[in-house]
């Protein structure tokens, strides 16, 4: 059965409203994009949506350290990733970009520090 989903492209400030027609995760038509990047964004958003995860983990002294994924991860794995991070404790010093946790939620993508802490 054909389905339609309208997504708002977030690749650039234009914010194209793109209509995607699909069946069983197979794209039949994409309309409304003004560029190829919008086409690619809409296709991925329907077939396999991904998001950056930004959150905090505890330092050993109880303070919070902001962290993020190196690249977007599948949207359906965000809660699993958060669960894996809830008991992580980091020993200072930490430099921005240091890997805090490798292979989060089995994605092959690392969690890295978003700022330095001495």
From TrEMBL:
It comes from the Bacteria. InterPro entries: CPE0013-like_sf (IPR036593), DUF1667 (IPR012460). This is 4Fe-4S Mo/W bis-MGD-type domain-containing protein. It comes from Thermovenabulum gondwanense.
